Amino acid sequence: MPDFAYTARSIGGGSSAGVIAAPSRRAAMQLLKARRLYPLEVRDVSGVGTTKGGLSFPARIKKEQVADLCTQLADLLSNGVPMLESLAILQDVTVHPRLKLAVQEVHDAVAEGVTLDMAMAAQPFAFSELTVSMVRAGQEGAFLEDALQRTSLFLRKQDEMRAKIIGALTYPIILGVVGTLITILMIVFLVPKFQPFFDRLEDSGSGLPLVTVLLLAISHFLMGYGWLLPIPFAGLFWGWRKWIATPTGRMWWDTWKLKIPVMGAVFHDAAVSRACRVLGTLLKNGVPLLKSLRISSESTGNRLLERVMMQSAENVTTGDTLAKPLASSGLIPPNVMAMIRIAEEANTLDEVLVKIADRIDQQIERKLEVLVRMIEPLMLVLIGGMVMFVIVGVLLPVFDLNSSVS
Question: Does the model's pTM come out above 0.85?
Answer without folding.
Answer: no
